[in-house]
Amino acid sequence: MTTELISLVVNGEAHQVLVKPNWTLLDVLRDELNLTGTKRGCDTGCCGACTVIVDGKTVNSCLMLAMKADGRNILTIEGLARGDKLHPIQEAFIEKGALQCGFCTPGMVLSAKALLDENPSPTEEDIKTAIAGNLCRCTGYIQIIEAIQAAARNLAGSASRR
Amino acid sequence: MSLPKFAYFVPATIEEACRLLRQHNGRAKIIAGGTDLIVSMRERLIAAEYLVDITRIPGLDSIGHDAHSGLNIGALCTHGQIESSRLIRQRFAVLAQAAHTIGAVQVRNLGTIGGNLCHAAPSADSAPALLALDARARTFSLQGGRILGLEDFFTGPGGTALKPDEILTAIEVPNPPAGYAGIYLKHSPRQAMDLAVVGVAVVLCLAEDGLTCSDARIALGAVAPTPIRARQAEGLLRGKKLDDDVIKESARAAAEAARPISDIRGSAEYRKEIVAVLTGRGIEQAMREARQKVRRKGKS
Predict the structure, then answer these.
(1) How many CB pairs under 8 A join A and B?
(2) Contact status, residue B104 vs residue B193, Cβ threshold 8 Å
(3) Are A21 and B10 an interchain contact pair (Cβ–Cβ within 8 Å)?
(4) Which of B42, B53, B109 sits opposite A44 (nearest CB)?
(5) What CATH code is assigned to A88-160?
(6) Does B109 contact A at CB distance below 8 Å?
(7) Which of A16, A31, A138, B290 is 20 to 30 Å from B227 at the Cα level?
(8) For A62-100, what is each residue's pLDDT tens digit?
């Protein structure tokens, strides 16, 4: 199998990576760029642990071939915090106890981010739809929904203060 | 399980894509969103030595509408695009409903309507909605393009009428009559990330009295080797005042049209019963919505 050179921007940083055609974006993030915050769960697009944001939209990175990421802008969980300052969604997850084992959390937080970027004041139903593709086996989802609601309030508050 | 090895092509034009498919006749597969194909390849259910990625070909991912020819959806439009399109939500709502039931957000952002149809799963959610809207498939090949009625597009589980070097480029939906209503109902144990055990789309139109059905189309998913129309059930509605008996009779006829298999998702008997339930429910919901439209029109 030949290798191909792809260019992609990950968390604001431009990368060029030699990839094989049968690698996925998840393989590139974890194994080539050492960004292991993105989790490999089911590897079949069912669990959402590998969720990343590509050009503003969430995708299962295990279903996206690396070649398809050529020229794309990718946000992973590592790109959310600013230095030591966590993103308001991350702070809300801690505040509300929205994580236990943490395996689903990176994907869950990114699904929440994509939701709030598009819809700053979601209903509970909107939130449930947004995280329907992210499985959590620990929390029972209640605290996750509360965290996303709290993050929406906090983000709206900080926007109106600006 | 890791993905098997394959060579990857990214053609810039549809002609180049067709040439690649012809050159690697039978050993090449088209990849669009990849949400079905990647999983099938990982599980070794589908083998391909060559993948032809058509997503960088311009012009296949837009949604257009014209008063004369109707709705035109590029084959590369994602389910996310379709469910959020204002045009589709307002005028072809049944299709937006169907798109919304597929997978979850992440899958809907990758998966395309063309892929959903070409993968040709009997449970494909786009299919009943499009059949009930009387949609057509537009294709391209180096010998020239074709327009196929969607019923003729599906040939069996995983099978389509596409030739090896032919590519689905768009779905065309004729303008439905003013005041029509359409509903897609899906039965699956989970509300997201699940395949349809049964999918039913009902599209109907009422006469000015708000009671008599002037036209109806009913389509079923996951209950036959391909998504199907339930023509007898439709015929029982046309020209009739839609009372409980007429609706029940039509729902029964839809169940009779179903030829389901028994599998892990449900037995054949169960699926037939659910077809009757969802068809009845779909007719009632579509009727209520169509009646509101008739009344609004009467007032204006």
Answers:
(1) 89
(2) yes
(3) no
(4) B42
(5) 1.10.150.120
(6) yes
(7) B290
(8) 999 999 999 999 999 999 999 999 999 999 999 999 999
* B107 to chain A, closest Cα gap in Å: 6
For chain A, the domains span: 4-79, 88-160
pLDDT greater at residue B55 or residue A161: B55
Chain-wide mean pLDDT for chain B?
A: 96
Measured torsion, CA atoms of residues B151, B152, B153, B155, in degrees rounded to the nearest 10:
100
Q: What is the token pair recorded at B218?
A: 């009913």
Residues above pLDDT 70, as percent of chain B? 99
B80 contacts on A by Cβ (under 8 Å): 57
Q: pLDDT category, B297, cuts 50, 70, 90?
A: confident
Residue A78 class from Cβ within 10 Å (0-12 exposed, 13-18 middle, 19+ buried)? middle
pTM for the predicted model, two decimal places? 0.96
Fold agreement between A4-79 and A88-160: no
CA dihedral B284, B286, B290, B292 (to 10 degrees): 70
* B chain contacts of residue A4, beta-carbon cutoff 8 Å: 8
**Residue B38 and residue A24: Cβ atoms within 8 Å?**
yes
The tens digit of pLDDT for each residue in B186-222 reads 999 988 889 999 999 999 999 999 999 999 999 999 9
Distances (CA, A) of A130 to A97, A122, A135, A157, B291: 19, 10, 12, 22, 33
- Give the pair of three-digit tokens for residue B33: 């969103």
What pLDDT score does A2 carry?
Answer: 87
B107–A60 C-beta distance less than 8 A: yes
Query: Dihedral through CA A160, CA A112, CA B112, CA A30, nearest 10?
Result: 120
Query: Under CATH, what is the fold of the domain A4-79?
Result: Ubiquitin-like (UB roll) (3.10.20)
Determine the residue of chain B that is closest to A19 in CA distance. Answer: B8
Structure tokens belonging to residue B86: 């204002």
Tell whether B12 is within 8 A of chain A (Cβ). no
CB-based contact (8 Å) between B39 and chain A?
A: yes
Q: Does B2 score more than 90 pLDDT?
A: no
Who among B4, B10, B107 is closest to A133 (CB)? Answer: B107
ipTM, 2 decimals?
0.96
